[in-house]
Amino acid sequence: MREEALEPVLRQAPLGLCANTRDEGLCHLVCFASPGEWDLLDSLNLMERGDYSGAVRRAVSTFEVLLEQRLRDALWPSMPQSDVDAYMDETRLRFWARFLKFQEVTGRSASWTQQQIEDIRDLRHRIVHQSYRIPFRERGRAQMAVDMSRWIFNWIEDDASRATVREGRIAQRSVVRHALGSLFRYEITFDGVRVYE
Questions:
Q1: What Å distances lie between residue 186 and 44, 177, 183, CA to CA?
Q2: Rounded average pLDDT over 106-134
Q3: Residue ranges of the domains in the chain?
Q4: Would the pTM of this model clear 0.85, i.e. be above it?
Q5: Rounded CA separation 91/97 (Å)
Q6: Under a CB-based contact definition with an 8 Å cutoff, are residues 36 and 154 in contact?
Q7: pLDDT digits (tens, 9 = 90+) for 56-85
Q8: CB atoms within 10 A of CB 83
């Protein structure tokens, strides 16, 4: 998008968030965030800070929120609004039924199995309803759940330009983290992070 075409969008951005930026990708993220997108980005930050439970809770919730909105949008042209509302009420606690319906209505097929998705949803349920805290030694499990949630979110959203901006920023962060890790010797302990000369 050329800067001249972007100006009206920048001026109308919520709370003026885009008012002074020239980073088009960032502006697009800020001005046109999909439902759940802010929480998806927050989940990445929570992983970096070591709040693995918070990261999983946020990440898994993001694709559920987006699925609800996108399924409503997909059903609306072929059903009266009252029928769409009734269907959404009827399936409020039946995620998998919604996920299958979304695939049917959009004509797209997801590559994840029900078990894979239910495993990360069960982990989030355990965090929320049983106060489970993911310890550092299980960071890989948390990272897998966050990554899978990102991929599912990207698939539901079906917007390559948005996914490219988000995923590019994730890649940049990883490169910097690994570069710094090679400059400084450190270890993560129960007492905190120790950096050595």
A1: 21, 12, 10
A2: 95
A3: 1-32, 36-158
A4: no
A5: 7
A6: no
A7: 999 999 999 999 999 999 999 999 999 999
A8: 12
